[in-house]
């Protein structure tokens, strides 16, 4: 769903990280279930989330503050 948002809005960026390949990131974000969605390091949602709920959280975070640091280089696939 995050990727669909990113395709529609150039201000939204979505990445997928394979936690088996990047265990440090999995620990950093306390991944216990997948999918896990992290929005600007502010909001974390675990499991499948309805589109309306994800949109609500994206808008809340987007209104709160500018984007934070990206996933560390080398952690992207």
Description of the structure:
The protein has 77 residues and is α+β, with helices and mostly antiparallel strands. It has a single domain, classed as Glutaredoxin. It is built from 3 helices and 2 strands. Strands 1-2 form a two-stranded antiparallel sheet. A hairpin with a 3-residue loop joins strand 1 and strand 2. The longest helix is centred in the C-terminal third of the chain and has 14 residues. It is globular, with a radius of gyration of 12 Å. The chain starts with a helix and ends in a 13-residue tail after the last helix.
Low-confidence stretches: none
The 3D shape can be described as globular
Radius of gyration: 12 Å
Task: Tell me the strand percentage band.
Answer: 5-15%
Under CATH, the homologous superfamily reads Glutaredoxin
Give the strand tally. Answer: 2
Distance between the termini: 18 Å
Count of discrete alpha- or pi-helical segments spanning 4 or more residues: 3
Calculate the mean pLDDT score and round it.
86
CATH architecture assignment name: 3-Layer(aba) Sandwich
Oligomer: single chain
Series of H and E elements: HHEEH
Read across the widest sheet, the strand sequence of neighbours is 1-2
As for the number of domains, it is 1
CATH C-level class = Alpha Beta
The helix content is 25-40%
